[in-house]
Predict the 3D structure of the following.
Amino acid sequence: AQSVTQPDIHITVSEGASLELRCNYSYGATPYLFWYVQSPGQGLQLLLKYFSGDTLVQGIKGFEAEFKRSQSSFNLRKPSVHWSDAAEYFCAVATDKTSYDKVIFGPGTSLSVIP
Amino acid sequence: DVKVTQSSRYLVKRTGEKVFLECVQDMDHENMFWYRQDPGLGLRLIYFSYDVKMKEKGDIPEGYSVSREKKERFSLILESASTNQTSMYLCASGKGAVNSPLHFGNGTRLTVT
């Protein structure tokens, strides 16, 4: 069965430090891949997505992610974290490219930022 | 900006009560979804709808039902609330296929005592 794992339940970084959040998926073909962010008290917001083409994708708020087919990974990165980046981050995989109901969300990684 | 509005931010209900969670979107999206969010489990799809009067079961529909009488409104119903339905509930809407993003409401935190 298709699945999405985010190995880190919680990560703490200092403001200004770099960040990498890990995401691994299990799916036979190349899926659509997403990262969403959920700030405290808010719904989820799309950070970026990968459908095809360049495996390094740029998103909003200075985030980027790299698709590595050989590792079945789609890790999220940011070179310098801001205090406002403290949030829950969800990786998601669409196994059917035409229907939202086939989007599988990972368990989430909670990010804390130390001033 | 697309706005998805969930009528309540917090709800406290008693076991056995019938509970209605309301969701309204203002961008004429065909597709609407209800998710349940629990720590360590991510988002799990309860029900979804791709058109008015249409509804489909998601991954965890047991104990829930939905109603979509108008395009902009999608209601989640707990026929007889139980303590294991204490959770955060998220509504989302989207247009077309997955190449356009899902837009989420801010969530309703439901506590069943």
Notes: The mean pLDDT of chain A is 93. The interface with chain B takes residues 4, 9, 32, 41-46, 49, 51, 90, 94, 96-103, 105-108 of chain A (CB under 8 Å). The CA atoms of residues 44 and 60 of chain A lie 13 Å apart. The domain at 3-114 of chain A is CATH 2.60.40.10 (Immunoglobulin-like).
